[in-house]
Amino acid sequence: MTNQTEKFEQPDATRRDFLLTAAGAMTAVGAIATAWPFIDNLNPAADVLAAGAPVDVDISKVQGGQKITVLWRSRPIFIVHRTPPALDMLQQARDVDLLADPESTVLQQPEYARNWHRSIKPEYLVVVGICTHLGCIPRLEATPGGSLGSSWPGGFFCPCHGSRYDLAARVFKGVPAPYNLPVPPYRFVKDTVLRIGENPPGPGADFDLRSIVQL
Predict the structure, then answer these.
(1) Which pTM was predicted?
(2) Domains recognised in the chain with CATH numbers
(3) Which single residue of 9, 95, 201, 204 could bond 110 by disulfide (Cβ 3.0 to 4.6 Å)?
(4) Beta bridge partners of 71
């Protein structure tokens, strides 16, 4: 593993407790995230996580506008079911003009997720929920405008130092975080089942999270 991975996996006690608490939490945020469903077997057994094996997540109960968080390799993985209005916003100049890397040119995702929605299926975003600044946990602030200002298009906000990302987890210009949130290896084994930690067949099938520029 790289030094960056080691630093994440061996934080001090306070940061570790905060990370595990935040990653396991399920709350409602704004109009796009009115509830977080509890999903059967949401997190796999500890021995599976420790081995770094792929994990399957049933997303059949995740309604449009909802977000869940699962753990994979001790990392919080955000899964967001984006609504059609949210997807439309990602392509508008109002959103794109705010971004530091709107075309995802920096290697923070596999090739199969290097597109305007940064995902395999546009409606489902799958990202590592760790801010690329200092490793804090961003929160979903999906409603445009509000307390984050009239220009806010909806997305993720890191309260530690103010970094912002849109609903494709693309980082804003002029914030402390330097890169987009990472997209982990994943694929759909069924229409409603995600396998995190395994690439789909075809281009990018050899992608590994250790290839990420910054995690």
Answers:
(1) 0.76
(2) 3-211 (2.102.10.10)
(3) 204
(4) 76
